[in-house]
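Question (not urgent): is this output format expected?
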Amino acid sequence: MSLSIGELAQRLRITTRTARYYDELGLLVPDRIDARTGYRAYGEAQLVRGMQIEQLKATGLSLEEIKCVLDTEGITPGLLRDRRRQIEELLAGHTAQLAAIDALLAGQHELAVPEIVVLPAQHVVVAHTTASHHELSRAIQRTIQRLGRSVRQKNGVRCRSFSARFPLDVDDTAIPIQVAGHLDERVTASTIQPAETQLKVELVGNVGLLPIAYDVVLTAVRERGLLPVGTAVEHYLDLGEVGRTEIAIPIQGCH
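Got this back:
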């Protein structure tokens, strides 16, 4: 079998310009080239290699990586696994971005702006724990899971939302944490959380922005001449993959 470059390109569903470029890269070299006319002739081996090239291109590998795969035995699984990890990371990032967009659109939320709110008294069930600064988020998450499960088992109801309180100034020592499950009605072991004035900002999406949200809230407290009570409050309005979290500082009022 002998194919011209045009015939090969047609078989592979590529352009002749692409086929020439493959030749320049040493990726798909003709079986022979006529020294006088420069005519490129391709055989069965080149047709098969061309099919392999297009197959690997569909994975997103670069042409250099494809050449490495085809010229080196045993390297394919490693490169393909690396490419798979790259795509998974890209998908995870884009999925999180889409979820954040959907959360903003569905809830019609404004972008984060500090505001003063007065929270009414409400029924809560409370659990206490401690954790280091680095384990704070995981400790809160575990306590929320235990508390929510306990309320369901004992009372047959679900907590409307959860919040966590801890000191504003945290260090490397054990941090005392109070986790509360918010309820619509009184149940066994519930208490009344008194009404409270807070300066808060609502964050939709990336929890990695929490440190910035704290900085915004604390700056707003100082700039407005407010007196913080001394605890930070994280109110988890939505515990989904991309949730809504209020960062708040209880305040006593103006100087």
